[in-house]
Amino acid sequence: MDHSHFQVLGYDIEVKDTLLVEALKALTEKKRNVVLLSYFLEMSDAEIAREMKLVHSTIREHRIRSLELLKKLMEGNMDGAEE
User: Fold this and answer.
1) pTM: predicted TM-score of the whole model, two decimal places
2) How does pLDDT run across 34-76, given as a tens digit for each residue?
3) CA–CA gap between residue 16 and residue 2 (Å, rounded)
4) 9, 32, 61, 66 - which has most CB atoms within 10 Å?
5) How far is CA 60 from CA 2, 19, 70, 81, in A?
6) Distance of alpha carbon 23 from alpha carbon 44, whole angstroms
């Protein structure tokens, strides 16, 4: 199993799923950071906004759009693997 580490605002975040790692790498740094802080460190949008010095609504939009992109990227990879 492949392991990758992402450095986000001084945090070292380990991701163990290869498909997820590749999808995360395809995101912009801000979007990737929001996803990692939200889902791996379980930070709220308000906490992430404070840490990243952005407004709450921006974090929310980044998170929502990032999840949509991750889903498309991962589904695309999974579809290709089945062929």
Assistant:
1) 0.86
2) 999 999 999 999 999 999 999 999 999 999 999 999 999 998 8
3) 6
4) 66
5) 29, 24, 15, 32
6) 22
